[in-house]
Amino acid sequence: MLKVYRGRRYSPEEPTAFLNRQFGSVRDVYSWALALATTTDQTPGNGVTRVQLDKRLNALKQELPWLGEAAAQPLQDALVHLDKAVIRCFREKG
C-alpha cells in the first residue's frame, strides 16, 4: 500500500528573491522595448530592429544599475520574443 503525504513546501527566500528580481527585470525590458517599438514608425524598413534594441539595452543597463544585476540572456530573450510578436502582428495576411 502506498502512503500519500500532503503538505506545502516553500522555497528559501534568497532564490525566490533572485527569481522575483529576474522576472521583474525581464518584464521591465519587454515593456520598455514595446513602448519604443510602438512609438517608432512601423512602415517596412523604418521600425526598430532587434539589433538596435540590443544596443539600446546596453545603454539602458548603464542608466539603470539594478538592471545590470539581472542575467543578460533572459533580457535578450525578451527582445527576441517581442521582435517575433511585432513581426507576427504587422505581417500582411494573405
TrEMBL record:
This is Transposase putative helix-turn-helix domain-containing protein. It comes from Sulfobacillus acidophilus.
